[in-house]
Amino acid sequence: MSNTNTTIKGTGIICKGNLNAGEFEMFPTMLFNYLQLKLITHTDVVVYVKLLQLYNHNEGYAYPTISKLMKYTNIRSKATIDNSLDRLREVGLIQTSKSPKFPNKNIYYVFKPLELHELYNVVPDKVEQFKQFETKLIKTAKQDKERYQQHQQERQEQNEQSIQAVTYCD
């Protein structure tokens, strides 16, 4: 199997403000809050956005098959799709029912995510875990900065010693 990277030259056009209707799907940025609190995964976001894109306003729901979701998202495992759908249901982003027209087919109602304060009220334990993680990141960043400054100071001292040694030898 060849491990070849494909390089594609993009348009070079700034995306924001340069898309026409039909060239984009509105993305609820509140989904990032769900990701941040580890309520959903990145794969779940892909499935959610595809369901949102497939949502039929006339019918009031999306109705892709699992195999279609696999094809559209390039997720190659039925179990992965099923797990994503389960998580999306658990956090209230979708609801699944059986189709009234086709009893063997699922339909998906796609819901707007909760606002940040609403989400934080519902999962205070996840918020606390995230705050602990954030505190750890800030502490690590501070330590990294201190180590870097110490390293820079040591390099400066070494450079000064090298200059003095060269000057002394001359």
Task: Write structural notes for this entry.
β1 (94-98) and β2 (106-110) form a beta hairpin. 13% of the residues are buried. It is elongated and about 90 Å long. It is mainly α and 170 residues long. It is built from six helices and two strands. The model has no long low-confidence stretch (mean pLDDT 89). The chain has a two-stranded antiparallel sheet with strand order 1-2. It has two domains: 23-122, Winged helix-like DNA-binding domain superfamily/Winged helix DNA-binding domain (Arc Repressor Mutant, subunit A, Orthogonal Bundle), CATH 1.10.10.10; 123-170. The longest helix is centred in the C-terminal third of the chain and has 46 residues, at 124-169.
What is the multimeric organization of the chains shown? single chain
Query: How many angstroms does the end-to-end distance come to?
Result: 60 Å
Number of discrete domains: 2
Strand order of the largest sheet: 1-2
Strand content: 5-15%
- The CATH fourth-level homologous superfamily of the largest domain: Winged helix-like DNA-binding domain superfamily/Winged helix DNA-binding domain
Overall mean pLDDT stands at: 89
CATH class of the largest domain: Mainly Alpha
- The ordered H/E elements are HHHHEEHH
**What is the helical fraction, as a range of percent?**
40-55%
Biggest sheet descriptor: 2 strands, antiparallel
